[in-house]
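User: For a benchmark we're assembling, each entry needs the component sequences followed by a predicted structure for the full assembly. Here are entry 17's components. Please fill in the structure.
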Amino acid sequence: METLEPILAEHPFFKGMPPELLKLLVGCASNVKFEAGDFISREGQEASEFFIIRQGKVALELFSPTHGAITVETLEDGDVTGWSWLLPPYRSHFDARAVDLTRAIRFDGKCMRAKLEEDHNLGYEMLKRFVRIIAERLSATRIQLLDIYGTRV
Amino acid sequence: MEHVFDSKAAPGRRAVLSPMVPEIFRVEKYRKETLDTYTLELKPASGTGEHRFGAGQFNMLYKFGVGEAAISISGDPTSPNPLIHTIRAVGTATKAMAKLKVGDTIGVRGPFGSCWPVEAAKGNDVLIIAGGIGLAPLRPVIYQVLAERRKYGKVFLLYGTRTPEDMLYRAELEKWRARFDMEVHVTVDRASSEWHGNVGVVTTLLKKLVLDPDNTVAMICGPEIMMRFVAMDLIKKEMTLDRIYVSMERNMKCGIGLCGHCQYGPTFICKDGPVYTYDQVIELLARREI
Amino acid sequence: MLEPVVEIEQQVTFKQEQLQTLFTVLQKRGYQLVGPTIRDGAITYDELNSTADLPVGWTDEQEAGYYRLARRKDAAYFGYVVGPHSWKKFLYPPVLSLWKANLQKGEVIVAPQAAQAPKYALIGVRSCELHAIAIQDKIFLQGEYTDPVYKARRENAFIVAVNCVTTGGTCFCVSMKTGPKATSGFDLALTEVIDGKRHYFVAESGSKQGAEVLAELTKQQVTAEEQQAAKDLMEKAAKKMGRQLDTTGIYELLYRNVECARWEDIAGRCLTCTNCTMVCPTCFCMTVLDTTDLTGQNAERKRHWDSCFTLDFSYIHGGSIRNSPKSRYRQWMTHKLAAWQDQFGTSGCVGCGRCITWCPVGIDITEEARAIRAGDKSDKATKAI
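Assistant: Structure for entry 17:
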């Protein structure tokens, strides 16, 4: 049977990952597809999974009762949805909604946590990747917060 | 300092008898672009004379009885008439100019300042990165590059604004995006779910861009913080400082290097800038209140 | 055609009474005399009618934040140093109308203001001031754009330099290599000598006009003794500089110390009053002021001297770039002693000491430079030994 291993190896998120470590993850992965408008995760709900996007567009949203859904960030091919699955209480902080037809690889949270706990080399490789993403998003968020196109900065 | 590309060549620089005296132009067209920006198309009131300029240069615009403001030229350098300015209403003069109507007059001094290295970038990929009103001084680059499209490699335009409603030149962005010989990506800092495009700061657009760092010229214009972050990301992508250009903004009163207001370190932004290579400004940008 | 009786650079002497003749000759040639005169308790530069308007027998005592007039024991015409004014007020007027505009049937008509060019004879220009004028020449005449008003006034000006035989407590022209002897840039240069009962001037011309004017005075060939007397006076003056500024590597020193602690220290004293920039003979910043009359039909643009010490100076929409006093003093001093060299190929400081004297809290640019040098942590090699 053909596994997802070659697809994972090609994804930018796993760039440089030793193949023997990547192999350990394949069991937690599955292929998924979302239609435009589908919710991928909901704020406050259990974050039992994360996705690496192969193709498509996903919006991270917060819903304001007076202003409707506000998009805080969009994710595209090569991006990863989030890290709520890694930290207790394993609940999503945003709504993630497919804007376009989106193909992704789903990783089961519980399965992943077990693997990372078991093999710390794998754990470190994965954390390095998530830390980079967290750092990028933090930096982007700070610029966003400054409202640089406004007249105050 | 030697530079790969010289941004000094300013074709529009004309011999002006008295560069402090404005020439009267008439508003031919007025277009509201966004909530706080508008575009003026101007022709000399005398009916004669042309206003040649280089991409990146600016004029001092004067509203009768109110005052002057330095505004970059956002028209087509290859077809400089009418003279086109896109203006954001943020100060006394620019708010007063927002009330101009077709047929009204406005004073023009210029063009002043250095140019984007559009000529020198021939044979290279061109990466244009704009934030907010920063697209206005870069639009002449797009026009000029597209006028001789074959002479350039890949052409990228990355554009970020606060919200979708703040985006300038929507129709033209659509047109450019539809071209096969130009890659256009836009993003906004925040949007409602009705916005189908990207949400995220302009640097997020750079993440996935595959660049040929030795064969690319980057031209950046936007708020200073945005330019610093973009330049840092370009450096991460192994671009050298002399291939990165930014357009600086400071207080200007004369436009001809005599009033002292626009001093930036050893330079005057009105004549040594506004367009600088990044190696000219990287040290200054790291210091506060220069 | 007759050769001028006096050749350029040839030295002559004339008795002190001949100074009035010099004034008259210049007036006859159409010059408005401007020079030192006492006003408001200071020696200022203003219009002169005769030598009686000069501060005869007066001198000035100067220290950081201190200026007082004092009586001399003799009747010297030029026995003072420099006051709060400089010649830029004549060559680069503090307020100038650039143009007027009016609405005629809704149309704006702009009328450029004709560049008025009074013919000034500048009387008593010090060597440091000649250098200041030369520096402003570079700014206004030798760049890409020139200032037509400055140009016309400058070309019309007749300069009578006076060598310094008295030095002030805040002078440091020797450090800046701008004095005390006038070496170029004048039509006439005088050295005033009072030697017992004799009161005379040693004069030389620096231009054809200077030689022609000198030719009209009653004069004698200079003697070796007289030449020596003038030289001695200047040498004595050079040794009595009230201040010193070590210019060794000052350009690198300031650029290197953009963030040194001394700026904060200065900011604790600086009132950002702009005095230093107003009295500085080389400071050239200006702003424009647009006004309309009450009918709204007539507008005018005026040019005013401006100062980098104001918040407004660096204001762009959203705020001022140089918000802190620290950054504004740093801008001024770094511009003067470093950036000026990049911009105009010369220092912006001539060592006249005005900024020290007229600072209400006595901030001393030479002392600040010394403190920055003392605190300079990097690159000891470029430090002065």
